[in-house]
Amino acid sequence: MVSLTGEHIYLRALEPEDLDFVYEIENDTSLWTLSDTQTPYSRFLIKQYLENAQQDIFEAKQLRLVICTAEGGAIGLIDVFDFDIKNKRAGIGILIKDQANRYKGYGKEALNLLVNYCFKTLHLHQVYANISETNAASLALFENNGFKKIGLKKDWSFDGQKFSNEYMLQRINN
């Protein structure tokens, strides 16, 4: 099994104690464009989600991990979604909650750990990401981790005022 521990961060499963952290992320309207969320989540719903988060990836078809600093503080979330064992592929999404923790290499390290886990432990052939054309930081993060732009989805997302394009990026395990 591949270690989910890096030099500065580690990835761990969601715990009931993550309720407030996940609640803040899911209800931060400035982050909703990243996840296509349009409504707030109650503590009750997030508590139920955390209680069911222990499902196996083969059953749930997704996996959400908490990104923690070496000191143990939760700083973000990283997801495997649309897990497709037949075609050996899955999507990946990442979020570092606070601006103060961005641009420090934590996202790069977390993405690298998760991609290695997907390829070496889950034996996936490919992983992909969907990223807004205007999200330069995320595009750079994924491209610097070996992902290639494979398509542009025109007018893909609507923010209530205008449509924006979204890139699909892919990394194939060779």
TrEMBL record:
Q: Which InterPro entries match?
A: Acyl_CoA_acyltransferase, GNAT_dom
- Supply the PROSITE patterns for this chain: GNAT (PS51186)
UniProt xrefs under SUPFAM superfamilies: Acyl-CoA N-acyltransferases (Nat) (SSF55729)
* Coiled coil (UniProt feature): none
User: Can you tell which superkingdom this protein's organism belongs to?
Assistant: Bacteria
Q: Where is the N-acetyltransferase domain?
A: 9-173
Q: Name one Pfam family in it.
A: Acetyltransf_3
Q: Which PANTHER family does the record associate with it?
A: GNAT-FAMILY ACETYLTRANSFERASE (PTHR43415:SF3), SPERMIDINE N(1)-ACETYLTRANSFERASE (PTHR43415)
Name of this protein: GNAT family N-acetyltransferase
Report the source organism. Answer: Winogradskyella marincola
